[in-house]
Amino acid sequence: xAKTKKPTVRYRxxxxxxxxxxxxxxxxxxxxxxxVVTDVARRIRHIAExxxxxxxxxxxxxxxRGATGxxxxxxxxxxxxxGMLATIINGLALQDAIEHEGxxxxxxxxxxxxxxxxxxxxRRAARHLEKGRVVIFAGGTGNxxxxxxxxxxxxxxxxxxxxxxxxxKVDGIYTADPKIHPDxxxxxxxxxxxxxxxxxxxxxxxxxxxxxxxxxxxxxxDFFDKQALQRVVCGERVGTLVTDAPE
Length: 247
What we know:
The chain has about 250 residues and is an alpha/beta fold.
């Protein structure tokens, strides 16, 4: 029997940005759904088996959002730190699921908690990736007033990721909100400059500036399409590519 040829990989080192909501289940109300986390872990395993070095940044919105806390009367800094801790809970859940899939992982946090995870050290993170370990970055940047999008852009730069993959609930970037405007058109590619000029809301301004200044491509894609992640790392046209000079 002929062996199945592995797909050709376009990106060898990626930073995958996942929102916390990806790990939950709106139907059951679960903040962290074991079956969903297992499915996410399997998709990560599939691309790791192709030789892709995978780093992940998780949000914490399924558990707590700093902005929500501020709206209910919490101090902004307190709410933001609570949100950072939520990302660490998510990181532990994903780490456990990935290890059940047979992959070695490391969880690194920007908030020092040695009983739970390693502190973030750039050289150590890069070495883990070189050894084929999936590295999960949790705790945001470790500072209030910065989103996990900013943490993702920062870590992508620090580890030398070839691309930042932003997983969302929609299949790319549109000229307008497609839920409100059915005639909205999806961009296949867009430049950083055009994204700024057209005020396309891709990431917060700090995160976007980090990617633009260091020329890290961003691909926005629908994570609920279960084949999309593998197709993206193999270079297929999926979602929207944001880059210095669109092809």
